[in-house]
Every structure is written in C-alpha cells, then in structure tokens.
C-alpha cells in the first residue's frame, strides 16, 4: 500500500513550491497581485481560475516557480480539487499559499494510488509531498486514504486471488493489528447456524465463510457492521450474460467497505463495542448449486422461495443480519453491492441509502454533504412488500414485475431486522467506471467518509 503518511507532512518552513488555489470569482484580484512574469505565464496558459485549469508560474530565479490550480470554490476546497494537478507536478514538496489544504489533502494523497499487483513493469509513482499548517488533521486524512486504498485493493483483486478464504484472511489481518477477536465458520459447519450462506456458497470450490470480528469495551454502545462478501457472482443457475459478469469480482465491495469502516473505527478508538459480520461466498454453478424454485431455510427461521439465483446477496445478508440482531445492538449498518436497479435509478456514483429511522437517515445524509461523499435516500415503501409474496414460503427472494428492485431488496433485508433496532442499508456500486482525478477506473470506496463522519458525531472520541 502507498505510504500516504510520507506524502502529507507538517509545514516547518522547509523548501517547497507554492500552490495558488484560484477560483473564477477571485481570479482578477489574484492575478493583479502576481508579478509581471507570472501574469504573462497565466495568460499564455489561458488560465482563468476555472475548475480543472492549471498553470506553471515562473519566479524571479532560474529555478524559482510556483503553480496555479483552478477550483470551483477556493474558500471551500473539495476532496478532488487538487487531485488532477498532482499528475502534472514533478516530485518535490508543495505548500498551498495559505498553508491549509483542508479536504483537498485526501485527493492529493489518493492521486498517488495505483493498483499494480499484476503488472510486470511496476513503474513507481512520483511522490509529491504536501505540506500542511494543520497537522492535527493530517493523521485523520492519512487514515481515510488508507481505508480507501484498502477498499480499492480488495475490490480490484480478481476472484482467483480473493475468494472467501482470502477475504477472511484480510479480516484476520485487521483483527491482529488492532487486537480484535475473530471467529470464522466455514464450509459444512455453516449448515446449522447459517443455512442461507451455505446454500449460496456450496457450489463453489472455495468454501463459504461467515466472518465475525469483535472489538472494544463491552460497556460501550454496540455498533454492528455487515458487509456483503460475494467474491464472484456468476448469477448461479440464472446465469448472467458475459457483459454482466465482467466486473463481478467487485460483488464483495460491501464487505470491503465494512472492513475498511471497521479499520477506521478501531484506528480512531471510537467508544463503541464494534462487531463486524461478513458472509463470504462465491455464487458459482455446479451440480449442487441452489436452484430457482428451491425453498431455503434461514437463521431467523424465515423460509425463502428462490425466484432468482442471481438475487443471492440478500440471501447471505439475511443470515448475517439475523446474527447481528441477536446481540441487540444500538445500531446496524450494512453495505452491499446489492442491485442493478439502484444504479439505474441513481447512477454509479450516488449510493442508495435506506433506513428505518428518519433521524439516522438525516444524520447520515448531512454527514455525506459535509464531507462531499453524497448518498441519496430511497424509501422502504411498505406496499411494495407484496411484490415479495410467495405462495409456498414466507417470502420470495426476487420481486415480481421487475419494478423497484432496490426497494424490494431493502424490504427483504428489513424482514430480518427488528423494527425497534436502528438500521441503515447502503446499496452501492464500489466501482469507478471511468478514471477521474484521484479516482482511477476500478474499485472505489463510496460512503466511507460520510459514515465515518456520522459515527464520529454519534459516538464521540474519548478525550
């Protein structure tokens, strides 16, 4: 993993190039304050302070130069405002003219991220060190960059090298680092306590797992994170077309997010009794694969008719949520790459939020706006529960008619959470379909910053 800590350093007035952050409304005043040489360079580069613009500004000496970067609002930097400029800069140290990069420091760091595990020619990424006069927040920014990189690395790793056992190993590594306890139930042992997880994962050569990590003081409020860990999704017997299967290594993106969130919580020592539950499977095809029309048992005792084997994520999550509920937690958060319907409704960059409590939903949405990590709330519309009716079981895993797919999936999960338990569910993409500054094409962390800001507000750090 990139050494992000080395890229964000306290400003002790060491030698560094100046980065001028300029927006269109303040451009004229900024330009008027520059030297004649700098004004000429800005004019030659057609720099007007618009977002994404860039210019090199010569100084008085032969090796004296600075940089101007255009942003939307220079008074309130967003995470990705400086990320595009990083790729144009040579390796050396930089400081913003006012010394405080704020939220843009995260994008600066993540512009150095590269997934090169499988490249034979691993070209090193030039290190551009950013100096900050606000070192108190630097550690938090580095931790967010590390958590984001963890999600990206896990999602980008193909299923051949990241199956249920490797996902369990990733959780075990976090447990070892932070002194957490972890239990892993696998294979045939899942039949008794986690029959739905077993049924979905039994057709794969790599045995399914139920990963259960716990950390923190037992006297603190209980916070449980649940993540969908489908390490590859063929669709099962309701097989996906090749185009739909191409990126299905990312179907464990929910588990990656839950694991990264757990890491952030443990690093920050939030005063919670943390539990992390990840059902990890591969939805494969073989002679013993579960079938359309099968009726599966679940941990909660709810019988499920299989309307579609490609609606497998909710099946493994229902066992995990039932386990989470037994501990009577203060709050349950689940993360899942659950439905294509959410992407049709909101696109790849805007995760869908569902919650059974308006106060929780509002707090999460507010936190997302504060840290430029947005979500959009969709309703748990009770009348649509009829779409999940079954004549031969308690519920069907696939809604009839093809409508409201994200909502019916969330309603399915809600059946396994008691109404009195505060719960939020996120249906996210975990994938960047096209490269943008600081966000290369591939696995991507979404909602990490929003949920961590929300959790910091709910569970204050100890003094």
Could you explain how this protein is built, in words?
This protein has 463 residues and is an alpha/beta fold. The protein has 2 domains: 4-133, Leucine Aminopeptidase, subunit E, domain 1, CATH 3.40.220; 144-458, Zn peptidases (Aminopeptidase, 3-Layer(aba) Sandwich), CATH 3.40.630. It has 15 helices and 20 strands. The protein has helices at 27-32, 36-44, 83-86, 104-110, 135-156, 164-178, 190-193, 195-201, 242-245, 253-268, 313-326, 340-346, 358-370, 405-414, 448-458, and strands spanning 8-10, 17-22, 54-58, 65-70, 93-96, 129-132, 181-186, 209-215, 222-227, 229-233, 273-283, 295-296, 304-305, 331-336, 352-355, 376-377, 395-396, 422-427, 431-432, 442-443. The strands form 4 sheets. Strands 7, 8, 9, 10, 11, 14, 15, 16 and 18 form a 9-stranded mixed sheet that branches. The protein has a 6-stranded mixed sheet with strand order 1-6-5-2-4-3, with helices on both faces. Strands 12-13-17 form a 3-stranded mixed sheet. A hairpin with a 7-residue loop joins strand 12 and strand 13. Helix 5 (135-156) runs antiparallel to helix 10, helix 6 runs parallel beside helix 10 and helix 10 (253-268) runs parallel beside helix 15. The protein is elongated, with a radius of gyration of 24 Å. The two termini are 31 Å apart. This is Leucyl aminopeptidase family protein. Residues 308-315 form the Cytosol aminopeptidase domain. It comes from Sphingoaurantiacus capsulatus.
């Amino acid at each position: 993993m990139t050494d992000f800590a080395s890229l964000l350093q306290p400003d002790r007035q060491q030698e560094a190039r100046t980065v001028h952050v300029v927006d269109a409304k303040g451009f004229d005043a900024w330009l008027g304050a520059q030297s004649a040489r700098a004004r000429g360079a800005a004019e030659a580069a057609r720099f007007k302070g618009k977002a994404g613009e860039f210019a090199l500004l010569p100084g008085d000496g032969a090796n004296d130069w600075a940089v101007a970067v255009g942003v939307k609002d220079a008074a309130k930097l967003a995470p990705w405002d400086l990320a595009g400029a990083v790729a144009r800069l040579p390796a050396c140290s930089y400081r913003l003219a006012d010394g405080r990069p704020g939220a843009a420091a995260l994008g600066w760091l993540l512009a150095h991220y590269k997934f090169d595990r499988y490249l034979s020619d691993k070209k090193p990424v030039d290190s551009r060190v950013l100096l900050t006069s606000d070192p108190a927040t630097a550690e938090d920014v580095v931790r967010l960059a590390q958590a984001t990189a963890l999600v990206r690395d896990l999602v980008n790793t193909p299923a051949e090298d990241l199956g249920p056992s490797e996902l369990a190993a990733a959780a075990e590594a976090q447990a070892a680092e932070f002194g957490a306890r972890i239990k892993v139930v696998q294979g045939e042992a899942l039949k008794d306590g986690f029959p739905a997880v077993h049924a979905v994962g039994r057709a794969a050569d790599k045995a399914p797992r139920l990963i259960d990590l716990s950390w923190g003081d037992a006297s603190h409020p209980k916070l449980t994170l649940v993540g969908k860990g489908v390490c590859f999704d063929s669709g099962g017997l309701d097989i996906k077309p090749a185009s739909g299967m191409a990126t299905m290594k990312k179907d464990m993106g929910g588990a990656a997010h839950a694991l990264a969130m757990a890491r952030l919580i443990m690093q920050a020592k939030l005063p919670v009794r943390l539990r992390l539950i990840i059902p990890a499977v591969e939805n494969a095809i073989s002679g013993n694969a579960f079938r359309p029309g099968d009726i599966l048992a679940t941990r909660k005792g709810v019988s499920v008719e299989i309307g579609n084997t490609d609606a497998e994520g909710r099946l493994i999550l229902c066992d995990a949520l039932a386990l989470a509920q037994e501990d009577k937690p203060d709050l349950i958060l689940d993360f899942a790459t659950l439905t294509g319907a959410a992407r049709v409704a909101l696109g790849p960059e805007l995760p869908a939020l569902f919650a059974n409590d308006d106060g929780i939903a509002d707090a999460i949405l507010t936190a997302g706006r504060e840290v430029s990590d947005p979500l959009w709330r969709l309703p748990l519309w009770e009348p649509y529960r009829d779409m999940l009716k079954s004549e031969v079981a308690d519920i069907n895993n696939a809604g009839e008619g093809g409508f409201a797919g994200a909502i019916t999936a969330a309603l399915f999960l809600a059946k396994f959470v008691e109404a009195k338990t505060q719960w939020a569910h996120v249906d996210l993409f975990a994938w960047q379909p096209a490269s943008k500054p600081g966000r290369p094409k591939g696995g991507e962390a979404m909602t990490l910053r929003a949920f961590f800001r929300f959790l910091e507000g709910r569970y204050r750090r100890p003094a």
